[in-house]
Amino acid sequence: MKAGIVSYGAYIPRYRIAPKTIGAVWGNDGEAMGRNLNIRAKSVPGPDEDVITISVEAARACMAKVSIEPTDIGAIYVGSESHPYAVKPTATIVAEAIGATPVLTAADFEFACKAGTAAIQTTMGLTISKMMKYGMAVGADTSQGAPGDALEYSASAGGAALLVGTDHVAAEINHTVSYTTDTPDFWRREGQRYPSHGGRFTGEPAYFKHVVSCAQLLFKRAGSQPQDYDYAVFHQPNGKFPVRAAKQLGFKDAQVDTGLCVRDIGNTYSGAIMVGLSAILDEAEPGDRIFAVGYGSGAGSDGFDITVTDAISKLRRDATPTVKRMIETHEFIDYATYAKFRGKILLREA
Amino acid sequence: MTQAIPRFWREIQSRYNLVGSKCGSCGKVDFPPRAVCPDCGRKSIGKMQSFKLCGKGTVVTYTTIYDAPSQFDMQKPYVMAIVEMDEGVRLTTQLINVKPEDVKIGMKVQATFRKLGQDGEAGVIHYGYKFRPAGS
């Protein structure tokens, strides 16, 4: 028996800031920085948005596409590295807000940018084993780079939710594999406001080693080749890494284009590959095959070989805005507004 | 502004999911929910049902807030509106994703989920509905 994606939903905040605007504040050539990162803009959460509101919006968009009772969901896991509470689950609030309480299990996951894909694998196991009918996996973040840090040009906000189960499967997950090692390329210590990273160390020994190794394992497990897939999506910390990894693996630009949302919204961390996958599912046709490999610093990759089924045409894909539409619906802000929204200005306690 | 934890917790169903009440005697919908129907009085006792609003409504009237409570300083100027829900009941809410000058009476709006406030940096965070232009 195989599990798969029963429904999906994404959410991207409407505010954007351009690399040029950020660079102007720090005396850098922001336009060049944006070109190098292959990022035109990054999404910014409003002052009343956080991982909980983004997760709820994504979860509601996911449930709006199907006629499944929320009480049939047996588990909700929310993967993020920017949960608003250090102690107090995001997942319970999501569960309450979609009407899935009280007979379910819920927890928050953390594995840098791949906590959402770890949640997909967990819900696959729980549904294949018949412990429950459906599980929901959410990946969402509102991560920040320290002011002036290179990360500030890419760290953005967004998320997606997948309903996973073995019935009414719109996209079957044929295979999943993971590749994990202890690699300290990016971290945030308890109590620290901003994350730290190993600069160029985040590239070859971290992102590329794990993504490429996981992808090769997945090819082997599935007995497939790049040309067998209609779409490929990778974790996208910037617009450069996934394009290079895809090329290295033998994928063509056309296979990667649809899921490469980072160019217009930046790096949504735990949301990144799941938002990319949602963009693909927005347009995918029955029979389409999707290759997806996520990455989380610290470090690990989760890979998925997915085949879209006939049931995708039964999803109400127009019930909520598509990823493309959310990318197009935006409002650019200046750095001062961005600093205000992101709490970078010190205030008196309200 | 500090709010007792149980006070907000009791209202979670209404704040998150727009759950009101419907009188089993006359069918009147109320939001927030009531224990007794204001029209039917004692006839409604034991007949009040939980009722979830669909989340869609129309702006009846609105005002723009320029001098905000300290918790809302980051959002000003912002719009507060009275919205008539499709079920006929009215509620007061903040309108988001729209500039004050673009708000119109009669505008179609829909509920969304946002942070409403918090009891300081170390306190509980409160979530609930705000409204945005329909289809935005």
Number of DSSP E strands of chain B: 8
Distance between the termini of chain B: 31 Å
Oligomerization:
heterodimer
Query: What's the CATH class of one domain in chain B, please?
Result: Mainly Beta
CATH architecture of the largest domain in chain A: 3-Layer(aba) Sandwich
Largest interface: A-B, 25 and 23 residues
Which helices and strands appear, and what pairs or packs with what?
The complex is a heterodimer of chains A (350) and B (136).
Chain A: E1 4-11, E2 15-17, H1 19-26, H2 30-37, E3 42-44, H3 51-64, E4 73-79, H4 90-97, E5 105-109, H5 115-128, E6 134-142, E7 157-165, E8 171-183, E9 186-187, E10 196-197, H6 203-222, E11 231-234, H7 241-249, H8 253-257, H9 262-265, H10 272-283, E12 289-293, E13 298-308, H11 323-328, E14 331-332, H12 335-341
Chain B: H1 5-10, H2 12-17, E1 19-23, E2 29-30, E3 48-52, E4 56-65, E5 78-85, E6 90-95, E7 108-118, E8 125-133
Antiparallel strand pairs in B: 1-2, 1-3, 4-5, 4-7, 5-6, 7-8
Notes on the structure:
The complex is a heterodimer of chains A (350) and B (136). By secondary structure, chain A is of the alpha/beta class. Chain A folds into two domains: 4-171 and 315-341, Peroxisomal Thiolase, Chain A, domain 1 (3-Layer(aba) Sandwich); 173-311, Thiolase/Chalcone synthase (Peroxisomal Thiolase, Chain A, domain 1, 3-Layer(aba) Sandwich), CATH 3.40.47.10. In chain A, 33% of the residues lie in helices and 24% in strands. Chain A has twelve helices and 14 strands. Chain A has helices at 19-26, 30-37, 51-64, 90-97, 115-128, 203-222, 241-249, 253-257, 262-265, 272-283, 323-328, 335-341; strands at 4-11, 15-17, 42-44, 73-79, 105-109, 134-142, 157-165, 171-183, 186-187, 196-197, 231-234, 289-293, 298-308, 331-332. Chain A has a nine-stranded mixed sheet, with helices on both faces. Chain A has a three-stranded mixed sheet with strand order 3-2-14. The longest helix of chain A is centred in the middle third of the chain and has 20 residues, at 203-222. Chain A is globular. In chain A, 56% of the residues are buried. Chain B has 136 residues and is mainly β. Chain B has a domain at 54-136: OB fold (Dihydrolipoamide Acetyltransferase, E2P). Chain B is 9% helix and 41% strand. Chain B has two helices and eight strands; from the N terminus they run H-H-E-E-E-E-E-E-E-E. Chain B has helices at 5-10, 12-17, and strands spanning 19-23, 29-30, 48-52, 56-65, 78-85, 90-95, 108-118, 125-133. In chain B, the strands form two sheets. In chain B, strands 6-5-4-7-8 form a five-stranded antiparallel sheet. In chain B, strands 2-1-3 form a three-stranded antiparallel sheet. In chain B, strand 7 (108-118) and strand 8 form a beta hairpin. The longest helix of chain B is centred in the N-terminal third of the chain and has 6 residues, at 5-10. Chain B is globular. The model of chain B has no long low-confidence stretch (mean pLDDT 94). The A-B interface holds A 14, 46-50, 52-53, 56-57, 60, 84-85, 93, 96-97, 99, 321, 329, 340-341, 347-350 and B 12-13, 16-17, 70-71, 73-75, 96-97, 112-116, 120-121, 125, 127, 130, 135-136.
